[in-house]
Fold:
Amino acid sequence: MTRTEFWQGNTACAEGALAAGCNFFGGYPITPSTEVAELMAAKMPKKGGVFIQMEDEIASMASIIGAAWTGARSMTATSGPGFSLMMENIGYAVMTETPCVVVNVQRGGPSTGQPTMAAQGDMMQVRFGSQGDYAIIALCPASVQEMYELTAKAFNLADQYRVPVFLMADEIVGHMREKIIIPDSMAKTPRKALVKGTLPFKPDADLVPGFPQFGKGYGVHVTGLTHDERGYPCTTNPKLHEALVRRLVDKIESARHAIADFDIINPDARQVFIAYGAPVRTVQQVMHDRPDKNIGFLRLRTVWPFPEYALAEFKNAKCFLMPELNLGQMAREVERHVRVPVVNIQKLGGELHTPAELVAALEAHR
Amino acid sequence: MTFDDWYRQDRLPHIFCAGCGNGTIINCTLAAVDQMGWKKDDTVFVSGIGCSSRAPGYIVTDSLHTTHGRAIAFATGVKMANPDLNVVVFTGDGDLAAIGGNHFIHACRRNIDLTVVCMNNQIYGMTGGQGSPTTPRGCFSTTTPTGCVEMPFDLCELAIAAGANYVSRWTSYHVKELEKAVKVGLETPGFSFIEALVQCPTAFGRRNKFRQVADHVEYLRAHSLLKAKRDRLIEAGEAVPDDMFVVGELARRKRPALGVKP
Structure:
């Protein structure tokens, strides 16, 4: 029996996490993500899980990594300033291959910026914000429904690839209320356990090692230092370091077809919108108002790893139009992969593009 | 002491310098853990960054060697998610009191059921001898080349004020006392903090006129003031020398605790 609700995006995020079996939430209050923590505080204990309000976002990120090693499906939620603080331990989660979910309800930056207004200014930070070379998975919801579904999906991806997975929402999606249909249950990908007797950081064919959960007799040493397959620090062997970092990147990049989640509308179009998150809604409005086979749409839910092969589906594209609530962070990524012009329709200030602004861009680049 | 079983033999030799006091503290801690009868499968060691934080890498149990200063925040996640696990944190003065100061006081306030053993060598050893928040006034380090002018932290007073259930301080000279103190810490529900002053010949001793390791250990011994003696001095209205470390059991109480095994 599915049911229908009228929810705020942040509510849907917390409910989606609970439906996915999230049983540990460590967080710190920050606008505009606080509702996620509030709902977790109210509901998590009733489901036998743990909610803890940490002293800052550094500690929040640390706590969910610690919890993950005991087998928990763990999550935190934050916004820009907190996200910046989390960068240190996000790198640790990548290096130690700790599955966990981080929700970033993006607001206007830099610094404290616009706490109550939307932005997509952290799209590069999520990909490159912690030191060193690495890869992560980032999903962008554009509706309350997707806040629910993509949060649940984030847990499965985290467990499958043993990597922190980011739900890169924004204040608009986080705070808007709309209809949501709650499915009966969510598919749950189990975390692949380490086969006893196998080295704890020896990868399988999918480049992902089995998970040696704490308390199960594995006796695993987990370190953020460069480590060998035993998990022991091994910091001065150039070949070993390169092999480790390449594997951490390759396990995500080589799976980008499997991780990809996007819709293609009008693949024969000459002008093609690309959007993720809240700007998807403005593009949808424009396409609804102007039914035209020559206006295409690549609507991304998976933003990292970037599904560059989707761009090739638009064989007649003369230009790509990218409305973003930033100064063109993902447009730069698209430019790397196409030969036609990429028109970056920038928007700062916290509000959505108006349909008229997108129409004007269509006309200007016809 | 029976601590040998807890070491990963395939990780030896270790990285600690000749004469380092950390091994003494790790031995004392493992001896106390062993006396608790804890199973290796149910015990987790967590640490941050620094010399002391390398300890869990040499222990056979599950262990988490985390980021600088954050060990207690990670340990909080481990303990809250699975209170059946016994969680012990190894840390140092820089890791705990400088970059990790906020996590330390909040864990004391929550009174979460962890045992934290701080190897206080009064210097940043791993990075080559910079001044730390516990470097005594007048002491030399690479960042206090004319002598430290700042006041040091009293970590135990900090833990007591912040709410820890059990607090004690000893030195690498007081191995029997330290082992007992760690054991009481492990037994006490809630946050237990054991500070162990240690010699660091490489980074501290050689810049501060301790020509031999034993000179530094003797200094720690000679400058230890038993809490009972300190209390008698205060009672008699006499001055407590300010170059002495008060050692002994400094707090033992039963404040409500978090994350205690049900």
About this structure: The radius of gyration of chain A is 20 Å. Residues 261-364 of chain A form a domain with the Rossmann fold fold (CATH 3.40.50.920). The mean pLDDT of chain A is 97.
